[in-house]
Amino acid sequence: MFFSRFFVTLTSQNEKRMIVCIAEKPSVGRDIAHVLGANQAHDGYMEGNGYQVTWTFGHLCELKEPHEYNPIWKTWSLGQLPMIPARFGIKLKSDKGVEKQFKTIERLMLAADEIINCGDAGQEGELIQRWVIQKTGAKCPVKRLWINSLTEEAIRDGFKNLKDQGDYQKLYEAGLSRAIGDWTLGMNATRLYTLKYSQQGGQVLSIGRVQTPTLALIVRRQQEIENFVPVPYWVLTTVYRDTTFTAVMKEGDRGFKTAEEGQAAMDAIRNDLFTVTSVEKKAGREAPPRLFDLTSLQVECNKKYGFSADTTLSLIQSLYEKKFTTYPRVDTTFLSDDIYPKCPQILNGLRAYFPLMERIKGKPLAKSKKVFDNSKVTDHHAIIPTGVPAQGLSEMEGKVYDLVCRRFIGIFYPDCLFETTTVLGAVAKIPFKTTGKHINDPAWRVIWQQQTSDEEAKDEEKTLPEFVKGESGPHTPDLAEKQTTPPKPYTEATLLRAMETAGKLVENEELRDALKENGIGRPSTRAAIIETLFRRKYIRKEKKNLWATPTGVELISLIREDLLKSAELTGIWERKLRQIEKREYEAKDFIEELKQMVTEIVLTVLADNSNRHVPAQ
């Protein structure tokens, strides 16, 4: 109520003053309009209380096509490459709905005393709205609304703390550099490879700054699997007191290299007693899982429910727009310190989850540096629930929301306490080993117990009998032939992780965080990149596994330029885009390096006399 009176007082001082707010979607625009008291509906905008609230539908503008810079570029020709405009320009998308909405926006902005950019709080959102504002030619001051959720409280707080548009100039420059980089490399490399290597009348060979190294990851993994030659080895085990012990090998050896070696060892132990030589118990603790960033949420949803990355992004975006979760397109798993005082209120809004909060009820909430760390949060924090009671969710939305809520509740639980037991034994001087794990206090694990299968529970806990050093007795040995196995094909979950870490296989969360700087693509675009590879028929899905098509394999085999297909090198370019955001690197230097790289690629491909071609599909 006070907030409404505040705006009435403000506007009554100068009744002619008009502030235009522009959101990224109609639904978001209406939410903002409701909070501002702009309740009068018009075609393409809301009005009232000194405000006009309008919206885009995502990208209304885009970079111009090649021929709009130079008419000669309309015809695809190797002789015209590289195409590098002296100055890049934007245009409206060719769509009647877009043109109509833009005319509305243009009319409002040209008459406005002030504009408030209410676009999504990220690089893409900044670019979308800046281009529209530029296209209108509006000259009035521009402010920026920057919020992490769409609740009324967050919108009110955001309007009380509006930022100057200039504070986000580097964010815009990073987004613009990304768009120019994608245009320059994509337009030139696609024409170059299509004209040089596609068969007459064949398909367009699409090359992209992120999609091509992503395809290369899949192709390389596929080739590793196809070229894999299994190596046999023999594992010697023995069962003592209903517990399986495995023979200890030299470091790096999986087992005996020949059947003869294995059989000789088995013969040596067959008639001797098994003796326990060591029993070691060690206490351990495991912290709750980290909160979700977008990639880890997509990974979890793919593993648990088989959702594609694109589906998960759509679901979490919907939950955000319904005010049930915070801004989703994030790459941090941390919260800033100012969120901590709001956590009890958020938990109180999760009524359906009260039974899971019994252990933390009535106690001060834990505040771990593994969760709350200002140094790990820039513009956005991890994905968490807002505390607005969720209702009317689809089954799929409910599954995603459930994961987000359980992760949030879990961060306030104590560590899981467990004990690992390592038992060493020997028969005829051949050493054996087994390990067990007993969970003493599951703590945060109770939040997931109902969702854990019996098989998963067995893997989590393996309780051993009580062994005593020096005891001995009969045993039953066994020799099993096994084979080395090829690497597993990528799933969307493992591919997202590979994109995040520039192709490096990393399980450790802290190390993975360090590698994010060099990841390829952004959390918000990786799903679209994977979908693009499907759409262009470069990859296909078999159950959960991703495989390259013959066209995808051949395309990667043709590309000799590492900068086009190396995830690691592309990751370095991604890091430079992030450095532009942080004011550590200049956008003009990025563009100049990109132009030089594209020129070198064109010259290299033109010099190829191999006469190879990609077969038409």
List the helices and strands and how they pair.
Blueprint: H1 2-12, E1 19-23, H2 26-36, E2 40-42, E3 45-48, E4 51-55, E5 61-63, H3 66-69, E6 90-92, H4 96-110, E7 114-118, H5 123-136, E8 142-144, H6 152-160, E9 163-164, H7 169-197, H8 211-226, E10 232-240, E11 243-247, H9 259-269, E12 274-286, H10 294-305, H11 309-321, H12 343-348, H13 395-410, E13 416-427, E14 430-441, H14 454-460, E15 472-473, E16 476-483, H15 492-500, H16 509-515, H17 523-535, E17 539-542, E18 545-548, H18 550-558, H19 562-565, H20 567-581, H21 587-606
Descriptive keywords:
single chain; 617 residues; alpha+beta; 7-stranded mixed β-sheet; 21 helices; 18 strands; disordered N terminus
Helix share, percent: 40-55%
| Fraction of residues in β-strands | 15-25%
Low-confidence stretches: 1-14
Radius of gyration, taken over Cα atoms and rounded to an integer in Å = 30 Å
Give me the count of strands.
Answer: 18
What is the end-to-end distance? 63 Å
Largest sheet: 7 strands, mixed
- Please give the order of strands in the largest beta sheet: 2-3-4-1-7-8-9
Q: Look at the helices and sheets and give the structural class.
A: alpha+beta
> Mean of the pLDDT scores?
91
**Count of discrete alpha- or pi-helical segments spanning 4 or more residues:** 21
Q: State the shape.
A: flat
